Amino acid sequence: MAFDLEAFSAPLTFNWTLSYRCNFSCDHCYSRDESCPELETADILRIVDILAEQQVPFINFGGGEPLIRKDLYDVAAYASAKGLNVSMNSNGWLLDRDAALRLKDAGFKSVGISLDSADPVLHDDFRNMPGSWERGVAALDALAEVGLKSTMSSVISRINHQSFCELLDLARNHHVRQVYLHNFKCSGRGFKNRQELDLDPEEWQAFYLQALGVKSQTSDLTISFYDPVIASLPGYEEQSLVKGSSCGKLSLHLRPNGDITPCGFIPLVVGNILKDEFESIWFDSPVLKAMRGKEATGKCAGCSAFEDCQGGCTARAFATTGDFNQPDPHCWK
Fold this sequence. Notes:
The chain is an alpha/beta fold. Helices cover about 35% and strands about 15% of the residues. The protein contains 13 helices and 10 strands.
């Protein structure tokens, strides 16, 4: 099933890395070893104008750590005034009550905090930052105190795949109503450390079967997954706007210098938002076309699930094989 480009004149979301700088050094990070010139504030505001003109409804600031950029509040306020829905993901270290108030005043709709274990020691070791669990939890409390919606992001790996329900309880205890259980990507340091941290395909299958069962019985929390490989599970009936990976279809990624990539985990530049015509990138990029029209190869050829999962996560396939069309290495079929 090919992506229907006519239905989308622009992505729904731009995931925007303002800076690759970070005060953490996580073993799974896609970007920690990246470097890139950063734009001045005036150029960043020009990008906001372009996104507003293209009627992109959502921008999400990631990184790197977004709060390292001192102009984050001004940029967010400008984007909010232009009608964009602004969110961000943070490690929480720099997010105290004053920062939470400034984020709220800047118009942020939600702020996600990364917490990967209910055990402070496991989280701190995973993030290579002593005290990071305590600061992350304090950030959630600060957001709740000022009335700004918080979410919690947890990267599923060997440290938590059998104890993710404890993460859900942690969220409940700190006024979080949506938890993202992220699949492990194999990009950047995640590629280097995948043997130690990543699950094997059968473990991913077992995790998703259990997690989907918990999700079906949970009403006080929204449990979210963004992993197209789930569509190969028997009886999985959730409907999404597109089949397979959403990157390059519903979302794009902005690097700190304005370069556009399909997603943060696929380091292929398809154009620069300040230098190239956006419509030409969106409609004509050979890379985006290849991602939107994946071909079933290897074990995907003839697989009954391919129409729904489209070979699984394109970023993982590309990171491990260099080929968009290869099967997702997490696939258990």
